[in-house]
Design goal:
This protein is of the alpha+beta class. It has 4 helices and 13 strands.
Length: 200
């Protein structure tokens, strides 16, 4: 697994074995994630999302602790997957990184607790599966507007973003900061350290 520019974000590019019958790959290996991240992913829930071209979901995050770590894969079609560092006090606060996930490269993306997550469907239909460390808990879930110009995510040109009413009404990063909704970087790091200690 390759660490990316935001602490807590890793990308896995699997080796694909192809022959006349089709292809085989290992899309997720617990041992590889544990070696890279420092702790295992305790699987609590598996989500499957199907989106049409231009659908934009996010930026979503959950209160830490316990937050919700995710391992995201696009099993059909293609998406632009974006991670935003919304952890107050982080050296990369407000930064974002995008990775194309699709059914050709079969990349997987690990997103640690406290990071913001969003994606846009690039294909006519895209199916995304993500493994989650915690079950969905509405009272701990929050949003930041994915089109906030202060974040400046470069979504693909030529696609009209399709947002849910909830995401369209989400606060900007500054509004979420002022409201005290954003995770604290030091609290997140302490939580990661606790996960690593419990995995030894």
């Amino acid at each position: 697994m390759e660490p990316l520019s935001i602490d807590g974000m890793w990308c896995h590019t699997p080796r694909i074995h192809s022959d006349p019958r089709g292809a085989f790959l290992e899309s997720y290996r617990s041992a590889d994630l544990r070696e890279s991240v420092g702790h295992r992913l305790d699987l609590a829930q598996v989500n499957c999302s199907v989106s049409g071209r231009g659908v934009l979901r996010g930026i979503h995050f959950a209160d830490v602790p316990p937050g919700q770590a995710k391992y995201v894969m696009c099993v059909s079609g293609a998406i632009l997957d974006v991670v935003v560092d919304i952890r107050v006090g982080s050296p990369t606060f407000g930064h974002w990184e995008a990775v194309r996930l699709d059914d050709e490269s079969r990349r997987g993306l690990y997103i640690a607790e406290g990071l913001g997550h969003a994606f846009m469907a690039l294909s006519e239909q895209a199916t995304i599966v993500y493994l989650c460390s915690q079950p969905y808990a509405p009272g701990r879930e929050h949003e930041v507007h994915p089109l906030d110009p202060a974040i400046g995510i470069e979504w693909p040109a030529g696609l009209v973003p399709v947002l849910s009413d909830k995401d369209a009404a989400a606060p900007t990063l500054k509004e979420a900061l002022d409201a005290g909704l954003l995770p604290d970087y030091r609290a997140c790091k302490a939580y990661y350290d606790g996960l690593a200690a419990s995995s030894r």
